[in-house]
């Protein structure tokens, strides 16, 4: 992975056909996705349960771009090795998931993965100030994590603050939740470069009719690029 700040669209497979993940990943990549965002939920840190490291491992051969694993689990440290072995390029943990985010980020990097830290809407930018040198990505949640298809919560002030805190450091700002062609320009203007989108990418299409995926991705990218 080389670092660049151009807009990247990361479809979340949470909004895809759960019986067909491999083909869904290949379909959105063929339609222009830059990364694939993989939402891991444990029914404890967030209400829903999705899947774990074994599913990520099975998905890996179907992902040619970047496998961006978003861990919405607590505790997190005991599971990191499994996700690294599954082939994650980026592993993101929540700052709210435990008392030792510093140790968690050290562990992620020591496993050879890029490290991300995620912030819930109620958590201020300052919560990651002392770990910025340990991360490759800060994920700003623009919904409360746990479900796809929720309404966007405006976090543009937090994004702009993080962008200033990051300065020239090679750290991505990723936005997760409610991203569509209406909200993408707001977050891109504030300094985000990775836009996760579930419903707004997968709506209207399917593996056998993937053209809408491409139209949806291009619409989000075009809207973000106008900012
Ligand atoms: C929410 C997940 C998101 C979700 C985004 O807990 O982390 O990645 O899939 O879905 P949309 O784009 O539908 O808000
Ligand atoms: Zn996510």
In short:
With 227 residues, the protein is an alpha/beta fold.
Outline the structure in words.
The protein has 227 residues and is an alpha/beta fold. It has a single domain, classed as TIM Barrel, CATH 3.20.20. Helices cover 31% and strands 18% of the residues. The protein has 8 helices and 8 strands; from the N terminus they run βαβαβαβαββαβαβαα. Strands 1-8-7-6-5-4-3-2 form an 8-stranded parallel sheet. α6 (184-190) crosses α8 (211-225). Bound molecules: D-xylitol-5-phosphate and zinc ion (ZN). Zinc ion is lined by residues 12, 37, 39, 70, 176, 196. A divalent metal cation binds at residues 37, 39, 70, 176. One of its GO terms (cellular component) is cytoplasm. Its cofactor is Zn(2+); Fe(2+); a divalent metal cation; Co(2+). Its EC number is 5.1.3.1.
Oligomer: single chain
Overall structural domain count:
1
CATH superfamily: Aldolase class I
Can you count the helices? 8
Report the span from N to C terminus.
Answer: 25 Å
User: Which fold name fills CATH's third level, the topology?
Assistant: TIM Barrel
The largest β sheet comes out as:
8 strands, parallel
Question: Can you give the mean pLDDT?
Answer: 98
How would the blueprint of this fold be written?
Layout: E1 8-11, H1 21-30, E2 36-41, H2 53-59, E3 67-72, H3 80-85, E4 90-94, H4 101-110, E5 114-119, E6 137-141, H5 156-166, E7 172-176, H6 184-190, E8 194-197, H7 199-202, H8 211-225
Parallel strand pairs: 1-8, 2-3, 3-4, 4-5, 5-6, 6-7, 7-8
The structure holds D-xylitol-5-phosphate and zinc ion.
The site of D-xylitol-5-phosphate (DX5) has 21 residues, from β2, β8 and α7.
Catalytic activity: D-ribulose 5-phosphate = D-xylulose 5-phosphate
Organism: Yoonia ponticola
GO molecular function: D-ribulose-phosphate 3-epimerase activity; metal ion binding
């Amino acid at each position: 992975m080389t670092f660049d700040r151009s807009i990247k669209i990361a479809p979340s497979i949470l909004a895809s056909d759960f019986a067909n993940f491999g083909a869904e990943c290949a379909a959105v990549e063929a339609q222009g996705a830059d990364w694939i965002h993989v939402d891991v939920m444990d029914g404890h840190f967030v209400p829903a349960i999705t899947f774990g490291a074994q599913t990520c491992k099975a998905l890996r051969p179907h992902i040619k771009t970047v496998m961006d694993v978003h861990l919405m689990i607590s505790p997190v440290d005991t599971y990191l090795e499994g996700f690294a072995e599954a082939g994650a390029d980026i592993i993101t943990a929540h700052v709210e998931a435990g008392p030792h985010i510093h140790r968690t980020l050290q562990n992620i990097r020591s496993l050879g993965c890029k490290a991300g830290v995620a912030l819930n809407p109620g958590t201020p930018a300052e919560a990651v100030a002392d770990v910025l040198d340990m991360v490759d990505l800060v994920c700003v949640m623009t919904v409360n994590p746990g479900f796809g298809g929720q309404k966007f919560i405006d976090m543009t002030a937090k994004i702009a603050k993080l962008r200033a805190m990051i300065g020239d450091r090679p750290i991505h700002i990723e936005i997760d939740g409610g991203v569509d062609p209406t909200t993408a320009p707001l977050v891109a203007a504030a300094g985000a470069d990775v836009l996760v989108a579930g419903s707004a990418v997968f709506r209207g299409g399917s593996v056998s009719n993937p053209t809408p995926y491409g139209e949806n991705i291009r619409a989000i990218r075009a809207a973000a690029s106008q900012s």
